[in-house]
Automatic annotation (TrEMBL), chain A:
Domain of life: Bacteria
Organism: Oceanobacillus oncorhynchi
Protein family: Belongs to the ABC-2 integral membrane protein family.
Main location: membrane
Name by which UniProt lists this protein: Inner membrane transport permease YbhR
Entries under PROSITE patterns matching the protein: ABC_TM2 (PS51012)
Domain ABC transmembrane type-2 stretches: 165-390
Pfam families attached to this UniProt entry: ABC2_membrane_3
Bilayer-spanning residue ranges: 21-39, 199-222, 243-270, 282-303, 310-329, 365-385
Keyword Nucleus found: no
UniProt membrane topology term: Multi-pass membrane protein
TrEMBL record, chain B:
Presence of keyword Transcription: no
Molecular functions per Gene Ontology: ATP binding
Protein name: ABC transporter ATP-binding protein
Domain ABC transporter, residue spans: 2-226
InterPro entries: AAA+_ATPase, ABC_transporter-like_ATP-bd, ABC_transporter-like_CS, P-loop_NTPase
PANTHER family, sorted: ABC TRANSPORTER G FAMILY MEMBER 20 ISOFORM X1, ATP-BINDING CASSETTE, SUB-FAMILY H, MEMBER 1
Length: 393, 240
C-alpha cells in the first residue's frame, strides 16, 4: 500500500524533527496557558480612589467588592499613571466625576460600572429619603388641620363643607428596596464567573489547531516540492490521489494528537468549563484540522519559498480570527457578512462556542460539521487537480 | 522501444522543442547531449509524462505517453538529488522501492547499495552525505525497480573519476536488461554511449554512434562537432 508507506514516512520525518514536534505540541499549550493568566479574573478587585466622596457612596462601593482609597485633592493624572488605582471618583457641587486613564478597558470597565452604580444608588436613597420626608410633612400638615378643625366651634365646622380625607395613606411603601442590586443579571449560558478567556478559549483551541496544522502541512509539502522529491515521487507509478491522501492522513495523525492535547490541557489543567461533551469538541477540531491540511497543501503549490508561505498568514489566517465567533458577524457590514461563510474558522469557532458554552449536542452542530466536511472535499479535489502541474497522469 | 515523432513543446510563446523525432533503440545506452538550455530536461519530462507535449506523439512499447502504468517500467534520476534528508540512505531506498508497488527483496536493496558503494553508509542520515554519495544514492533509487527503461539526467555530476568509471561499467552491464537514456554535457562521457543524440536549436542536430558522428563532421572530438554546427548555422544565417 503506497499510501501507508507515505504515511509511515511522514511519521518518521515528523518524529525526527524535534522543532516541528515542539511547534505542534508545546507552542499551543504555552500560548493558551499564557492567555489563561493574562486575562484578569472577575473576582479580582478593582481599586478606586475617592476624593470628597461621602461615606454612603464609599459603603456602597465597598459592598460591591471595590477597594476604595480615600484621598485628598491631588494630581489625578500622575496618581493614576503611577498605578495607584483604576479610577478617581470626585464630587464637586453635586456633580460626580470619574477620571480614568482610558488605556486599560479590562480594569476600567468594572471601575466605571461600579462607581456609576454606587452614585446612582445614593441618588436613589436620597430620593427615597426625600419622599419619606415629604410624606411625614404631609402627615404633620393633616394632623395640624385636624387639630385646627377641632378647635373651631362645632357649628362652623359643620357648615364648612370640607370633605377632607384626613386619612392620608401613610402606608405608602416609601422604602425602595435598596438591599438588592438595582439590576439582577441572569446568565443564560455559564455564570458570572465566566472570564473573557473562557469565551475565547474554545475559539483559540480551534485557531491553534487550524494555524499550526496549516503551517506544518504547507511547509512540508513545499519542502517536498523544492527538494525535488515530489517530482521523484511522481516518477513512480503512485497515484496523485495517493499522495494527497497520504499527506492528509500522515499529518492528520499529528493534527489529531495535537487537538487532543490542546483540548485535554484546556479542560483538565486550565479548568475550562464545558457545557457540552468533550467528544463533540474533538469532532469539530478534527474536521477543522483536515480543512487546514487541505488548505495548507493547496496554498503551498502557489508559493516558491517558506517566506512566501509565511506571507499567506496575514492573508489567510488572521482574517479568520475576526469571523471565528469572537465578534458578532450579524452586526458587521453587509459585505463582511458575505465573507464570513467562506471562512472555515467561522463554522468551527461558532460550533465550538455552541458546544463549550451552550452545551449543543452532536445533532445541533451537524450543520457546521457538514460545511467543514465540504471544505475538506473541495480542498482535496483541488489538491489532486493541482498535482497535474507536476505530472499529467 | 521509445519513439518520439514530430513532438513539439513550448512554454507560452517560447518554443523549447520543435518537431523532434527520435527512435531510442532497446538495450543500448543513448546519450542526449547538447549545451545547457537546449531542452534536454524538457524532452525527458515529456517522455516521463510529467510535461504535456503540444503536438506529435510519444510512445513507449506501443503505449502512448502519458500513462501512469508505464512508470512501472521506468527508472528516473533527476538532475537534482531528490532525497529525503531526514531519512537514512536505506530508508530512502526502501521508501521509493515501496512506491513501485511490488515487493522488492532486501537482497535487491543490498545489491543496489553495493553497486553504488553505499553499503557502509546506509544507516546514515542523507543530511550527512557528501554530494557524491547523494548522487550515488539517487542512482541506486533509479535502479531499484529493475526498470526496462532507465532515464538518467546528468547522472555523474559530482562523482569522482574512479567511481564514475565504475558506474559506467555498471551502466554497460545494465543494458543487457534495460534501455538507457542519459543526458550529459560532459563530452568525454558522450564517447562511452552507444548512440548519441546531439541537441541544438530546439531539436536533434545529429544522431548516430559517436564514431559515425565524428566521421560525418570530420572532427576528432564531440566538442568540435558543436563548433562545426555553430559554423554551419552562422554560414546559413549569412547566406540568408
Amino acid at each position: 500500500m503506497r499510501m501507508l508507506q507515505l504515511i509511515k514516512r511522514i511519521c518518521k520525518q515528523v518524529l525526527r524533527d524535534k522543532r516541528t514536534l515542539a511547534l505542534l505540541f508545546l507552542a499551543p499549550i504555552f500560548v493558551i496557558t499564557l492567555l489563561n493568566y493574562i486575562f484578569p479574573d472577575p473576582d479580582d478587585e478593582v481599586t478606586i480612589a475617592a476624593v470628597n466622596v461621602n461615606d454612603e457612596v464609599i459603603d456602597i462601593l465597598e459592598d460591591n467588592d471595590i477597594i476604595v482609597k480615600q484621598e485628598n485633592e491631588m494630581d489625578i493624572q500622575s496618581y493614576l499613571e503611577e498605578g495607584n488605582a483604576s479610577g478617581v471618583l470626585e464630587e464637586k457641587d453635586g456633580n460626580w466625576t470619574l477620571t480614568i486613564l482610558n488605556d486599560n478597558p479590562m480594569d476600567e470597565g468594572p471601575a466605571i460600572q461600579g462607581s456609576s452604580q454606587a452614585v446612582m444608588e445614593t441618588n436613589l436613597n436620597d430620593l427615597s429619603d426625600n419622599i419619606d420626608n415629604m410624606i411625614s410633612n404631609m402627615e404633620d400638615m393633616s394632623a395640624g388641620v385636624e387639630e385646627m378643625m377641632e378647635q373651631l366651634p362645632p357649628e362652623v365646622a359643620e357648615n364648612m363643607d370640607i370633605n377632607m380625607d384626613t386619612n392620608i395613606n401613610t402606608d405608602i411603601d416609601s422604602e425602595i428596596d435598596m438591599d438588592n442590586d438595582p439590576i439582577s443579571v441572569e446568565y443564560i449560558y455559564g455564570d458570572e464567573s465566566n472570564t473573557f478567556f473562557e469565551i475565547l478559549n474554545p475559539i483559540l483551541v480551534s485557531f491553534f489547531v487550524f494555524f499550526f496544522v496549516f503551517l506544518i502541512a504547507g511547509m512540508s509539502m513545499l519542502k517536498e516540492r523544492s527538494s525535488g522529491t515530489l517530482e521523484k515521487l511522481l516518477s513512480t507509478p503512485i497515484r496523485k490521489s495517493e499522495i494527497v491522501f497520504g499527506y492528509l492522513f500522515g499529518y492528520g495523525i499529528f493534527a489529531i494528537l495535537q487537538t487532543a492535547i490542546i483540548i485535554l490541557y484546556s479542560v483538565y489543567i486550565l479548568d475550562m468549563e464545558i457545557a457540552g461533551s468533550i467528544s463533540n469538541m474533538f469532532i469539530i477540531n478534527i474536521f477543522l484540522s483536515f480543512v487546514a491540511l487541505g488548505l495548507g497543501l493547496l496554498l503551498s503549490t502557489f508559493v516558491s519559498s517558506e517566506f512566501q508561505m509565511i506571507q499567506f498568514i496575514p492573508l489567510v489566517i488572521i482574517p479568520q480570527i475576526f469571523f471565528s465567533g469572537m465578534l458578532n458577524v450579524d452586526t458587521m457590514e453587509t459585505w463582511l457578512q458575505w465573507i464570513a461563510p467562506i471562512m472555515p474558522l467561522y463554522y468551527a469557532g461558532n460550533a465550538m462556542i455552541d458546544v463549550v458554552l451552550k452545551g449543543f449536542t452532536f445533532g445541533e452542530i451537524l450543520a457546521p460539521l457538514s460545511i467543514l466536511f465540504l471544505f475538506i472535499v473541495v480542498f482535496v479535489t483541488l489538491n489532486i487537480l493541482g498535482m497535474r502541474r507536476y505530472r499529467k497522469v | 522501444m521509445m519513439q518520439l515523432s514530430n513532438m513539439s513543446k513550448s512554454f507560452g510563446k517560447q518554443t523549447i522543442l520543435q518537431d523532434v523525432s527520435i527512435d531510442i533503440s532497446a538495450n543500448q545506452i543513448t546519450g542526449l547531449i547538447g549545451p545547457s538550455g537546449t531542452g534536454k530536461t524538457t524532452l525527458i519530462k515529456c517522455l516521463m509524462g510529467m510535461e504535456k507535449y503540444d503536438t506529435g506523439s510519444i510512445q513507449i512499447d506501443d503505449t502512448a505517453v502519458p500513462n501512469r502504468k508505464l512508470l512501472n517500467k521506468i527508472g528516473y534520476m533527476a538532475q537534482s538529488d531528490s532525497l529525503y534528508h531526514d531519512l537514512t540512505g536505506l530508508e530512502n531506498i526502501q521508501f521509493f522501492a515501496h512506491m513501485y508497488g511490488r515487493k522488492i527483496s532486501n537482497k535487491a536493496v543490498q545489491s543496489t547499495l553495493n553497486l553504488v558503494q553505499l553499503e557502509q553508509d546506509k544507516n546514515k542520515l542523507v543530511a550527512h552525505y557528501s554530494g557524491g554519495m547523494k548522487r550515488r544514492l539517487s542512482l541506486a533509487i533509479a535502479l531499484i525497480n529493475q526498470p526496462e527503461y532507465l532515464i538518467l539526467d546528468e547522472p555523474t555530476v559530482g562523482i569522482d573519476p574512479v567511481l564514475k568509471l565504475n558506474i559506467w561499467d555498471q551502466l554497460h552491464d545494465l543494458k543487457k536488461e534495460s534501455t538507457l537514456l542519459i543526458t550529459t554535457h560532459i563530452m568525454d562521457e558522450a564517447m562511452k554511449c552507444d548512440q548519441l543524440l546531439l541537441m541544438k536549436n530546439k531539436g536533434i542536430a545529429a544522431s548516430g554512434t559517436p564514431q559515425e558522428i565524428l566521421e560525418n563532421f570530420g572532427v576528432s572530438d564531440i566538442d568540435q562537432v558543436f563548433l562545426k554546427l555553430e559554423e554551419i548555422e552562422y554560414a546559413n544565417a549569412s547566406a540568408d
